[in-house]
Structure formats: structure tokens, C-alpha cells
């Protein structure tokens, strides 16, 4: 028995070493780092205590990044669910070609972010893009819209991100839909419930807990998304209209080489997510369905 | 009623098909157009004179093949390392009982919640202190760490579903433990191993942030960073960029088509981050 426990730990050691050394330790080191003025390359460091945190509390760039992040995460989360849930409901119905469609719908989520970004940059190109061509041909707009200019860059970023990430909602929601016992629908049909009423009274309560998880995960992951935002808007020019906290943390650390400040931003993001998650759980705790 | 219902289903299905696949189709179509056609108004859905010229230029005029090889090497090594480490760990979590086992499993899942951007700064400084900046090893280690929690949980679920009796029967027949695992457990967990391998490959293949921060040498760049560099030219060469996009997407699509049924199974078992 004791030998068996030892073997158990031994087999787990490589995993624990990797996670401990490359995730847990860096996170603790990051908290420590946030108390210093630290150059990203040079070994210079100087203790500043909570100085970085005080600086950010009145830093307009920080608050602008925070607002962008809330708008971006909120809008993309709502729209991903708005597209993903109906798509999952459709893919739960029986029709020919359903399995093929289930596979194809996953593509946007599987391809590299760089591909999603280059193809939307091309679709949204102001002079030669297909989107502007279709809009002007359909007379929905009398001029070419500068989708990647200051006024529209946030819209374009949201569109690109929703397209890229809605398949996550489809698959997760569909997996739960498939486990709803058919008897529940049969009983509702016998009672003469319409499709809409069946959705409200059977599907929604059954899927409430998975929706709870989807909202939580998508919000967290969109709030901490770096690559889509950075690749679409770059570092100069229009980037200031969509800069979110992850991009700001990257810029502080690797453009201005202020690693201590970047580390403080990472800590702030972590605390924000922790608080938001706690509030979220608190708000829905009382309701039986969100177990 | 029935006809109307199925017409509605196919109508909505077509909308969903266009939403998911049309942007990718448009990328493919653009990559096959000669430069004159790319900027033609009105744009043509299918190239009038399809050509592979953009692809030839991609291979001849840019360092695309080098980046491609780098990506293959890094993603391949990541898959091997992640699968070995997580298979050992998952076997331990399902076949041995020891104090704190379930706590450890829970804590491992917790590390999955950290976004790359939240640890990239200390990670970079540590990697630099160990002299690993600008090495493939740094990339492989970071991707392995990020895939590990997911793969451990996925394989744990698969190992749990394999009856202990099968293994014990092999042991009674005189096989030692390693042999029993190799010939009994791993083949039965194959769908899980394949799903874990594909997810790991895709994560390593797609990553941008770690590759951007940890690699500065042109010789070691992977595809996402290399392709993004194509934008830094004064005139954006759309044909070339779309050809690059097609080439990066190809391995993903091929893998995906080959093992789709395993993937959906794995996805439901573990939930996948992105």
C-alpha cells in the first residue's frame, strides 16, 4: 500500500514539476515583481511597494483600457451566445448533412487567430473588401466604410472575435442539449405546448447551468484575450481605440520595458476576475437551477 | 407542416454554413487569383483564371517554409511531451490511491484558469535567467504546461472508464504492470489520446503570444509570427497573405476531418479553452 502511494506520486511528479515551475511559481513571482521597478531585459530593480498600483489608479490609459475590455468582453460574450445558442438548437434537430455541418461550424474556432484576423482584415478592407462591396451594391451605404479606422475598429474587432469564438458556445451548449431526456419534450407536446413554450419551459431550465458556465468562461477568456486584439489593431495608430488591459500589460512590459508595471497590471486583472467571479456566483447562488 | 419545417431547417442550416465556412472559402478563392483579379470590381466569387502563383511566390520569396518547419518541430515535440507526461499523471490519478489525490486533481484544473497574458511577464524573465530565450525548448515547455491540465483531465476521464478487471486479468496472466498498461489500457484509451494529441497540436500550432515574446531570431520563428510579419511590408500583398493563411489552416483541417468523431467526444469530456 505504501509502495503504491509512492508510485502514484512518482508518476504525477513530471506534471507537478511542470505546473509548479511554469505556472504556480511565475504567478507568485509576478506578485513580487509588481512591487518593483524592473527593466524587462536588464537586471536593474528597485523596490517601489504599491507605487505601481497607486499610479494606475489615476492613469487615464489604464481606465480607458479597462473600459475597452468591459465593452469588448461584454459585447462579444452576449453576441457569441446570441449566435451560438440558436446554432446549437438547429444542430440538435434531425436533418441530412447535420454531422457535416457540426464539423464545419467548428472551423473558425480551430484555425489560428492570425488566420481569422487576416481574413477579416481582407473582408473589411475599405477599398477592396467584400463587405463594403456588398453594402454599397445593396445600397445600404453610399460610401466605403473605413472598418479599420478609429470609428469602426471596435465594431470590427467584435465581429471578428464573435466569428472566431461562437463555435465554443455551439459545442458546449449542444453537448448539454443532447442529454435532455426526450420524455420531457413528449410530455410537453402532449400538453399542447408550442415550440416556443417547450423551449422556455423545458430547454431553458435544463440548460441553465451550462449557460451559467458559458457566460463565466467566455467573459473571463474574452477579458484576458490578447492575440485577436493585438493582431487586428496593432500597436500604433488605431490601437488606442480598442486597447484592452492584456494589450496594455504587453505594451508596458515589452514596448516600454517596464516589467514591474506590466506585472502589476497582470495582478490587477487577476483580482478583477476573482472579484467578478465571486459576485457572479453570489448573485445566482440562491437559484436552484444554477447548481 | 413537415415540408415547411424541413425547408426552414435547410434555410437556417445554409445560413450557418455560410457563416462558418464562407470567410474561409473567400480566403481560398483570393489565394488562387492572379493579382489583377484580386482587386477587380465587382469581385468574383470563384477565380476566372485560377493560379498557384501566390503559393509559388510564398515558397520562393519569403521564409515561409522555414517557419513551417519550425512550427511542425515545436508542435510535434509539444505533443510527444504533453502526451507522455499527462498519460503518466492521469494513470496515477486513476489507478493509485494516496492522500490528497483529489485535491491535487482539483488544483491542477485551477491552473487551467490562468490566461497566458497573466503569466507571460514573469515567465519571460525566468526563461531569460535560465538562458532559454530564443530556443525551441522554451516554446515546447510553455505549450506543454498550458495543455497539461486539459490533457490530464481528459485522459483521467478516459482511464476511469476502462474497467480495472481487464488490467488485473493481464497481471494474473503474468504480464508486468508496464506491459498491461501498454497492451490493455493505452489501446482502450486511444480515442482520448488522439483527442488530447490534436488539441495539443492545435494549441501549439496556433499560439501567437509565447512565440512573439520568447522568440526573436528569424531562424526560429513559427508561422503565426512569421505571417504577421508579412503585413509589415509597405504594400500589403493580399494574394501572398491569403496563400499563407490557406497553408497554415491546411494541417488543422486535415487532422480535423480525419478524427472529428474523437474530437467531439474529447471536447465534451474536458471543455477546451480559447
Q: What is shown here, in short?
A:
The complex is a heterodimer of chains A (291) and B (274). The relative contact order of chain A is 0.13.
Structure description:
The complex is a heterodimer of chains A (291) and B (274). Chain A contains 13 helices and two strands. Chain A is mainly α and 291 residues long. A two-stranded antiparallel sheet of chain A has the order 1-2. The longest helix of chain A has 32 residues, at 2-33. Chain A starts with a helix and ends in a 6-residue tail after the last helix. The model of chain A has no long low-confidence stretch (mean pLDDT 91). Chain B has 274 residues and is mainly α. Chain B folds into two domains: 1-51, no CATH class; 63-270, MetI-like (MetI-like fold), CATH 1.10.3720.10. In chain B, α4 (64-95) runs parallel beside α7 (136-160). The longest helix of chain B is centred in the last third of the chain and has 33 residues, at 238-270. Chain B is globular. The two termini of chain B are 41 Å apart. Classes of the chains: A mainly alpha (291), B mainly alpha (274). Chains A and B meet through α1, α3, α4, α5 and α6 of A and α1, α4, α5, α6 and α7 of B.
Helices and strands, with pairings:
The complex is a heterodimer of chains A (291) and B (274).
Chain A lengths: L1 H32 L2 E3 L6 E3 L3 H7 L2 H32 L6 H8 L1 H4 L2 H11 L6 H8 L15 H25 L4 H9 L4 H29 L3 H7 L11 H11 L3 H27 L6
Antiparallel strand pairs in A: 1-2
Helix pairs in contact in A: 3-8, 3-10, 6-8, 6-11, 8-10, 8-11, 12-13
Chain B lengths: L1 H30 L3 H4 L14 H9 L2 H32 L5 H11 L4 H14 L6 H25 L3 H9 L4 H12 L1 H17 L2 H6 L8 H7 L8 H33 L4
Amino acid at each position: 500500500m505504501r509502495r503504491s502511494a509512492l508510485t502514484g506520486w512518482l508518476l504525477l511528479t513530471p506534471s507537478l514539476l511542470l505546473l509548479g515551475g511554469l505556472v504556480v511559481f511565475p504567478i507568485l513571482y509576478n506578485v513580487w515583481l509588481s512591487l518593483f521597478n524592473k527593466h524587462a531585459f536588464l537586471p536593474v530593480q528597485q523596490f517601489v511597494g504599491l507605487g505601481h498600483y497607486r499610479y494606475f489608479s489615476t492613469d487615464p490609459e489604464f481606465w480607458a483600457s479597462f473600459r475597452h475590455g468591459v465593452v469588448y468582453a461584454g459585447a462579444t460574450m452576449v453576441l457569441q451566445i446570441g449566435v451560438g445558442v440558436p446554432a446549437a438548437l438547429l444542430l440538435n434537430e434531425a436533418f441530412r448533412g447535420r454531422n457535416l455541418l457540426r464539423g464545419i461550424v467548428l472551423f473558425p474556432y480551430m484555425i489560428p487567430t492570425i488566420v481569422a484576423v487576416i481574413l477579416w482584415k481582407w473582408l473589411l478592407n475599405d477599398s477592396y473588401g467584400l463587405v463594403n462591396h456588398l453594402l454599397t451594391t445593396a445600397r445600404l451605404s453610399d460610401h466605403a466604410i473605413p472598418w479599420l479606422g478609429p470609428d469602426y475598429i471596435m465594431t470590427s474587432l467584435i465581429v471578428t472575435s464573435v466569428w472566431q469564438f461562437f463555435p465554443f458556445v455551439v459545442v458546449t451548449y449542444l453537448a448539454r442539449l443532447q442529454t435532455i431526456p426526450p420524455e420531457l419534450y413528449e410530455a410537453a407536446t402532449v400538453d399542447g405546448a408550442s415550440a416556443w413554450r417547450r423551449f422556455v419551459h423545458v430547454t431553458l431550465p435544463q440548460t441553465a447551468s451550462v449557460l451559467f458556465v458559458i457566460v463565466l468562461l467566455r467573459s473571463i477568456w474574452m477579458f484576458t484575450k490578447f492575440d485577436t486584439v493585438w493582431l487586428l489593431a496593432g500597436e500604433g495608430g488605431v490601437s488606442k481605440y480598442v486597447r484592452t488591459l492584456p494589450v496594455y500589460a504587453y505594451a508596458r512590459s515589452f514596448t516600454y520595458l517596464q516589467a514591474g508595471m506590466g506585472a502589476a497590471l497582470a495582478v490587477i486583472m487577476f483580482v478583477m476576475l476573482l472579484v467578478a467571479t465571486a459576485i457572479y456566483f453570489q448573485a445566482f447562488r440562491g437559484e436552484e437551477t444554477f447548481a | 407542416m413537415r415540408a415547411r419545417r424541413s425547408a426552414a431547417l435547410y434555410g437556417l442550416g445554409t445560413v450557418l454554413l455560410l457563416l462558418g465556412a464562407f470567410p474561409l472559402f473567400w480566403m481560398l478563392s483570393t489565394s488562387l487569383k492572379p493579382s489583377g483579379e484580386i482587386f477587380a470590381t465587382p469581385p468574383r466569387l470563384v477565380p476566372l483564371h485560377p493560379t498557384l502563383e501566390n503559393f509559388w511566390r510564398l515558397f520562393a520569396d519569403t521564409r515561409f517554409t522555414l517557419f513551417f518547419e519550425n512550427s511542425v518541430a515545436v508542435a510535434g515535440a509539444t505533443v510527444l511531451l504533453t502526451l507522455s507526461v499527462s498519460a503518466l499523471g492521469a494513470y496515477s490519478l486513476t489507478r493509485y490511491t494516496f492522500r490528497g489525490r483529489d485535491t491535487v486533481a482539483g488544483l491542477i484544473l485551477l491552473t487551467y484558469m490562468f490566461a497566458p497574458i497573466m503569466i507571460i511577464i514573469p515567465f519571460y524573465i525566468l526563461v531569460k535567467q535560465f538562458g532559454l530565450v530564443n530556443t525551441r525548448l522554451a516554446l515546447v515547455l510553455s505549450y506543454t504546461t498550458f495543455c497539461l491540465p486539459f490533457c490530464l483531465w481528459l485522459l483521467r476521464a478516459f482511464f476511469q472508464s476502462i474497467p480495472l478487471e481487464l488490467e488485473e486479468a493481464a497481471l494474473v496472466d503474468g504480464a508486468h504492470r508496464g506491459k498491461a498498461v501498454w497492451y490493455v489500457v493505452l489501446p482502450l484509451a486511444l480515442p482520448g489520446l488522439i483527442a488530447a494529441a490534436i488539441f495539443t497540436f492545435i494549441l501549439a500550432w496556433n499560439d501567437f503570444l509565447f512565440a512573439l515574446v520568447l522568440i526573436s531570431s528569424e531562424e526560429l520563428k513559427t508561422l503565426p509570427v512569421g505571417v504577421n510579419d508579412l503585413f509589415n511590408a509597405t504594400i500589403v500583398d493580399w494574394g501572398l497573405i491569403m496563400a499563407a493563411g490557406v497553408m497554415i489552416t491546411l494541417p488543422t483541417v486535415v487532422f480535423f476531418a480525419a478524427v472529428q468523431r474523437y474530437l467531439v467526444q474529447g471536447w465534451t469530456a474536458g471543455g477546451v479553452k480559447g
